[in-house]
Amino acid sequence: MQIQLRDVRRQSRQNLDFYETMDLHHSHPNIEDEVSVHVTAHAYFNEDELYVLDGQLDTTIRLKCSKCLTAYDWPLSVRWHEVFSLDEPPDEEDDTDIHFVNDDEVDLNPYIREALLLAIPFVPVCRDDCQGLCPSCGINRNEASCDCNNERIDPRLAELQKFFSTEDKQE
What we know:
Strand content: 25-35%
Largest sheet: 5 strands, mixed
Oligomer: single chain
Radius of gyration: 26 Å
Order of helices and strands: EHEEEEEEHH
Shape: elongated
Helix content: 10-25%
Number of strands: 7
Structural class: alpha+beta
Number of helices: 3
């Protein structure tokens, strides 16, 4: 979606309401498909001669659980705030969140993509009590159980385990 900054400056407030399809599955390993994002925002030109966008991003993302690899839908609603300026920054070390643009037309897609990717969990889990996959046989432990012995002994403590097993046999 492109926004014309001159139109924002002429109007006291410009309302944005549109749907945008984003291809996020190349940016995050656990996103399954493209997502349709509903963008609602208000754009205005403030007294500091900055172009401000305040709004909301709403979507449902198809994620892959990091533990059991099951695909699930995750609703996402993100507050969105961006500030643009046509003027060059006064100080090179200025640490503000102002995007300096050279053109009157601004593509909002990179900013929408960034806001969504920052809101997605780093390790998505389908549910809080997800048991994941069995490391031995690979069965999804949320759907079925297995009789695999997954007890692992630290090799540094193997001698200690032998000591306790012989002590139990003597009693």
